[in-house]
Amino acid sequence: MDSPFVLVNLKTYQEGMGSNAHRIAAAAEIVAKESGAVIGIAPAFTELHPMSHHYAIPVYAQHIDAITPGAHTGHILPEAVRSAGARGTLINHSERRLTLADIGACVESARRLHLETVVCTNNDATSAAAAALRPDYVAIEPPELIGSGVSVSKADPGIIERSVNAVRAVNPDVNVLTGAGIQSGECVKIAVDLGTCGVLLASSVVKADDPEAVLRDLVSLL
Ligand SMILES: O=C[C@H](O)COP(=O)(O)O
């Protein structure tokens, strides 16, 4: 199996802005180099270009819109995300839901632009539907656990297992991530043992006094 993937979503947390964002990116770079794990970051859009050019870690957008270049004021153009140096993008995060048609269009645009795609889902049925669109990853996250500090790995391992099976049944080439309350190496190990290739997380790292220590613990059992 390839190196496990830990994707840290800074969301719009105050602690994920400005110098704090760069402190987290620098910590991710150090821990990734030490551990061999792949640790990516999804910062505010305004940080995509500086981070992708300053840190040797995958930088992801938190969202793209299903648009092409033109008159789309205030939208996030996939081409702009690519030219900013992003490696990939989240699509349909529970805090930025899209229609099924838009998810499909975003995955197609990202594929054309060689942007990796992480389509976020909320149960095994939507995980199967997302897999049919051929993203690089499906990230299963029960919305009620997001930001709760209660780990999906411990509170609801069944949803992870069902989503892994549902995705594999549709397209075994699609990798599965899981997220919601992920906070320790034990959470990550459970997720990987259940068939995922890693985790999508936010608050346990972004709100930590010592993000580097949390990141080191997250990959400690891999
Ligand atoms: O994008 C990250 C997920 O929404 C999980 O967030 P969380 O780790 O704060 O629960």
Automatic annotation (TrEMBL):
<comment type="pathway">
    <text>Carbohydrate biosynthesis; gluconeogenesis.</text>
</comment>
<protein>
    <recommendedName>
        <fullName>Triosephosphate isomerase</fullName>
        <ecNumber>5.3.1.1</ecNumber>
    </recommendedName>
</protein>
<dbReference type="GO" id="GO:0006096">
    <property type="term" value="P:glycolytic process"/>
</dbReference>
<comment type="subunit">
    <text>Homotetramer; dimer of dimers.</text>
</comment>
<dbReference type="InterPro" id="IPR022891">
    <property type="entry name" value="Triosephosphate_isomerase_arc"/>
</dbReference>
<dbReference type="Pfam" id="PF00121">
    <property type="entry name" value="TIM"/>
</dbReference>
<keyword id="KW-0963">Cytoplasm</keyword>
<feature type="binding site">
    <location>
        <position position="181"/>
    </location>
    <ligand>
        <name>substrate</name>
    </ligand>
</feature>
<dbReference type="InterPro" id="IPR035990">
    <property type="entry name" value="TIM_sf"/>
</dbReference>
<dbReference type="GO" id="GO:0006094">
    <property type="term" value="P:gluconeogenesis"/>
</dbReference>
<feature type="binding site">
    <location>
        <position position="146"/>
    </location>
    <ligand>
        <name>substrate</name>
    </ligand>
</feature>
<feature type="binding site">
    <location>
        <begin position="9"/>
        <end position="11"/>
    </location>
    <ligand>
        <name>substrate</name>
    </ligand>
</feature>
<dbReference type="InterPro" id="IPR000652">
    <property type="entry name" value="Triosephosphate_isomerase"/>
</dbReference>
<dbReference type="InterPro" id="IPR013785">
    <property type="entry name" value="Aldolase_TIM"/>
</dbReference>
<dbReference type="GO" id="GO:0004807">
    <property type="term" value="F:triose-phosphate isomerase activity"/>
</dbReference>
<comment type="function">
    <text>Involved in the gluconeogenesis. Catalyzes stereospecifically the conversion of dihydroxyacetone phosphate (DHAP) to D-glyceraldehyde-3-phosphate (G3P).</text>
</comment>
<feature type="active site" description="Electrophile">
    <location>
        <position position="93"/>
    </location>
</feature>
<comment type="similarity">
    <text>Belongs to the triosephosphate isomerase family.</text>
</comment>
<feature type="binding site">
    <location>
        <begin position="202"/>
        <end position="203"/>
    </location>
    <ligand>
        <name>substrate</name>
    </ligand>
</feature>
<comment type="pathway">
    <text>Carbohydrate degradation; glycolysis; D-glyceraldehyde 3-phosphate from glycerone phosphate: step 1/1.</text>
</comment>
<keyword id="KW-0413">Isomerase</keyword>
<feature type="active site" description="Proton acceptor">
    <location>
        <position position="141"/>
    </location>
</feature>
<keyword id="KW-0312">Gluconeogenesis</keyword>
<keyword id="KW-0324">Glycolysis</keyword>
<dbReference type="GO" id="GO:0005737">
    <property type="term" value="C:cytoplasm"/>
</dbReference>
